[in-house]
Structures are given as C-alpha cells and as structure tokens.
Amino acid sequence: MTTDSPTRRAVRAYHEARFRGDVAAAAAHIGDGFTFRSPFVASDSPTGHLDGLDALLGIVTGVDLISELYGDHEATLIYDVHTASPVGTQHTAEHFRLRDGRITAIRLLFDSAPWQAVMTAIAPPCD
What we know:
By secondary structure, the protein is α+β, with helices and mostly antiparallel strands. The chain has helices spanning 6-20, 23-27, 53-57, 113-122; strands at residues 30-37, 42-43, 60-70, 74-83, 89-99, 102-110. It contains four helices and six strands; from the N terminus they run H-H-E-E-H-E-E-E-E-H. It is globular, with a radius of gyration of 15 Å.
C-alpha cells in the first residue's frame, strides 16, 4: 500500500481531527453502518463515540504515533496518549475498517484497569 492511499488519508484525517477536538471533521470520515467498540464505550452513532471528547482532551497532553499499518480496507494505528492524570501514558491500538474510503468500524484497544480507579474517584459507585 502506498503511503498516500485513500485508506491512510481517511484514517489519519479522522485521527488528527479527533485529537484536535474537531468532532465534525472526524465524523466527516465516517460511513454508513458505523460501529465503535472500546473497553468503556460501544456506539453505532457516527458522533456518539465522540461524546465526552472534550473531557478526554482536557487531560491529554500529547499523542505519539508509534506505528501505522494500512491495507485496502483496513488500518491499524498504535500510539501513546500522554495524560495529565494518574494514568500517565496510555498505550493504545486502534483498528479501522473502511468501505468506499469511509470508516465503518473502529475497535479501540487499551488497558482499562488504570482508568477504573480514576473513574471511581470521579463518580464513586452508588450503594
């Protein structure tokens, strides 16, 4: 796959828009039948998975792309998200499926265990 493929352009544009906090620009790269799955969020909405992005970006201090792999209709990004939280740096992998140059599925993978304590501190469990 060339370095300037339609898959790469769509995925990188989405990734960069998301970490800029530009929900509309990120959502513009999403196609019909979209699904999103992560350790904390599942959504079938093109923007539903981006809900709460402002809160996340409020603690993100940087993102370092480690690896990007592209096929004709899929891509995988591996990156570190640096946060100003007790979690620190989150090692992350994100797998994308595409159809007609638009993202139709995202699977976000990361170790959610460090975030459990943070989430409990923010909203303790109800009795």
